[in-house]
Design goal:
Length: 444
């Protein structure tokens, strides 16, 4: 008699090996960059790991919370370093106006945080600067781009000198330009949280200008004109450094610009800030709760006989690319939906005969692929901006629907971003500039 065959248990389909590799690597990158390691947050579209797999895992939320929208802008010490970003921001703002039918829409209406370094810091500060009369964002993307374009055409004066956008606070025309734009506005006078990095020679460590810190104490509240001067300072010696003092005079920063000391890409700093700022972003627990656009400043091709300043610039571009690659890998498979990088080859020029920033938007940038080098992106920079504009409008509509449902007593998704009014008077955690400075130091 033939022995009975024992039925083998059905085997569940195994997770794709490449995807599993992405997830494991993403957990490691997220732990290193942002200080969290919840695997559940990284397995989008699949089942979360058992709670026993990670004692720090957060229970799955029954109701979607939406996404925190982050704008990050690279930059160096030259006004021209912000021209590509400025052109991209103008294109993005125009798309948002077209999709919403609101001709007065501003980028700050759709983003929760703006971060920028160097010329990118100037752009970010202008976009979130708040008008005193109505509280609306004071400048459009067109205004910000026009400001950089004017200063990049100044010839040998001020910003366009090889030394950078800002050389000496007492005599530079750049200082007068910043004063004319921002007047006496401080970090508190912004429509959205602002993050701008520099390097403090006094302490020998990175420093992050942050509205969250400014709200906590006047000792961290700086005038926006000084913030821009600090992030654009281009020297490594005291004559070229910029001194910035807090509004109450208690904090003194001897600043060198972010681009010079490899802080040109502030994306990781912005993400770290959001994930650790539970006062303003109480439900932002991981990359699935973020919607991030990172805009580069263009990449100059290396040539023979490069000058010292060109070599420094190329090195800074390499570090910015490293930050982009690390952030992209930390997002894992969410990289294609929650993280977008705008970058192009060539150095943008405002003068006739150079590469126009608008032309660079038609390029396809190179993206990193885990363990497989790099590949050409499927979409152009302009197409990526259109896709991101769609996501921003969708997130805004989701929030409006949730607010309407709560007003009608129908519940709705909890707010991943707290309104500024609800944050007044709440206890602020330890200085975010110190927290992010530690992150910067670990990367460098």
């Amino acid at each position: 008699m033939e022995s009975a065959r024992v039925a083998e248990p059905a085997v569940a389909p195994a997770m794709d090996v490449d995807k599993l590799t992405y997830e494991i690597f993403s957990i490691l990158e997220s732990k290193f960059l942002f200080g969290y390691d919840d695997p559940k947050l990284l397995f989008a579209g699949g089942s979360p790991l058992p709670s026993s797999a990670s004692p720090k895992a957060t229970p799955a939320r029954a109701t979607p919370t939406g996404k925190v929208c982050i704008l990050s802008i690279d930059g160096g010490g030259r006004a021209a370093d912000g021209l590509l970003a400025g052109a991209a921001l103008v294109r993005l703002e125009a798309s948002l106006r077209r999709r919403t039918g609101d001709p007065d829409a501003r980028l700050a209406d759709f983003f929760d945080v703006a971060a920028g370094s160097g010329a990118g810091g100037v752009l970010a500060a202008m976009l979130v600067a708040r008008g005193a009369a109505d509280g609306r964002p004071l400048f459009s993307a067109e205004d910000a781009l026009a400001f950089l374009t004017r200063n990049s055409l100044r010839g040998g004066r001020g910003w366009s000198k090889p030394g950078g956008l800002f050389r000496r606070q007492s005599s530079s025309s750049g200082a007068a330009a910043f004063r004319k734009v921002f007047g006496e506005m401080t970090l508190r006078d912004t429509a959205r949280p602002l993050l701008v990095p520099c390097y403090d020679l006094a302490t020998g460590a990175p420093f992050l200008f942050s509205r969250a810190d400014a709200v906590e104490t006047p000792a961290y509240d700086f005038r926006l004109r000084d913030v821009c001067a600090a992030t654009c300072a281009a020297g490594s010696s005291s004559p070229a450094a910029v001194e910035a003092r807090s509004c109450d005079g208690s904090t003194r920063i001897v600043a060198v610009g972010g681009g010079v000391v490899a802080l040109g890409n502030p994306t990781a700093a912005a993400i770290t800030h959001v994930l650790n700022n539970k006062r303003d972003f109480p439900l932002a627990a991981g990359v699935e709760d973020l919607l991030v656009i990172s805009i580069g400043s263009g990449e100059a091709a290396a040539g023979g006989g490069a000058s010292t300043s060109e070599i420094v610039r190329i090195a800074a571009e390499g570090v910015s690319d490293m930050v982009d690659q690390a952030v992209a890998m930390a997002f894992g498979h969410n990289r294609t939906s929650n993280y977008i990088r705008i970058q192009a080859m060539g150095s943008p020029q405002a003068k006739k005969g150079g590469v126009a920033p608008e032309e660079m938007l038609s390029q396809k940038n190179v993206e990193s692929v885990l363990f497989r080098g790099k590949k050409l992106a499927e979409q152009t920079n302009a197409e990526k901006l259109e896709r991101f504009a769609h996501e921003l409008v969708k997130e805004r509509d989701r929030r409006r629907g949730a607010d309407a449902g709560q007003q009608l007593g129908l519940g709705g998704a909890p707010a991943v971003v707290k309104p500024a009014a609800e944050c007044q008077g709440q206890q602020q955690p330890t200085s975010y500039s110190n927290l992010v400075s530690q992150m910067f130091t670990s990367i460098l």
